[in-house]
Write a structure and sequence with these properties.
The chain is an alpha/beta fold and 313 residues long. It contains eleven helices and nine strands. The protein has a nine-stranded mixed sheet with strand order 4-3-2-5-1-6-7-8-9, sandwiched between helices. Helix 9 runs parallel beside helix 10. The two termini are 14 Å apart. About 6% of the residues have low confidence. The structure holds guanosine-5'-diphosphate. Guanosine-5'-diphosphate (GDP) binds next to helix 5. The site of guanosine-5'-diphosphate has 18 residues, from helix 5.
Amino acid sequence: MFNSLSDRLTGTFKNLRGKGRLTESDINSTIRDIRLALIDADVATPVVREFTGRVRQRALGAEVSGALNPGQQVVKIVNDELIQILGGETRRLNMAKTGPTVIMLAGLQGSGKTTFAGKLARLLRDQGHFPVLVAADLQRPNAVRQLEVVADRAGVPCFAPERGNEGGHDAVTETGEGTRSFGDPVWVAQAGVGQAKVRQYDVVIVDTAGRLAVDEALMDQARNIRDAIQPDEVLFVIDAMIGQAAIETALAFSKGVDFTGVVLSKLDGDARGGAALSVASVTGKPIMYSSIGEQVKDIEVFHPDRMASRILD
Ligand code: GDP
């Protein structure tokens, strides 16, 4: 995903690393190269401005110290600041102290939510948890079935709003919580979480509906589900391929559902990806996972320091 950004920055640093002394004009020309590389990679303009401002300030004030020559010191500053832009520390899942940990997924249609639900469930299952998926995306006719397929691949159960217990899947009707419509995603989400409690699953991952664009009805529904199930995490899944639109979408979801963490999906693609990298900085919310393919194993915990090294090495 970040090949071209990485090549540009590495090229800039190659000249710098060997330098014994750095003049202000060396620093200025380095900052200019970095700015252009970030802009070309689609990094959001305010993020580029803040980033280059901080690098410049620190580079000009840097004392020559220890084992690093001035060029290497600038490279280190860029690395440190990139880690900050990407969210600083690795942020782990916030697990509930009692009862199941409830994780709600939100994002636009096609962003990769359903696929990610399976990946996360599998990752947690491999860590010794007992996750269950809940199909509260009732917008698309096929979404419930798709989540069931994903659950099968991940080897975890799926609570779906079906009458009876078809296909070996648990039906949310079993909780018997009232007689509200099967078409009500808030009820389905609540009933699914209720059933997970009864059956002692320790993680519930609730898939919700997306639309092709942000709209009020989508946000209202997501907010209603969130308020009903009181999740420990609301993860916002964003397709890294959508370019600059990622920023606007992330801000809309941040305002709409106040998500707690970001999932960057489709990082295996060949888009420039800088907009997705800006999401943590623009929203102030940490990136927690990256999704790097269509298979259930294609998930990584997001480590800002490792991502920075991957981009700069
Ligand atoms: P949803 O509408 O948000 O639930 O999105 P889906 O999970 O259905 O994903 C939409 C499409 O993107 C599907 O064709 C997925 O196979 C594909 N997809 C999801 N995640 C990834 C990923 O990390 N990499 C790639 N290459 N494709 C993905």
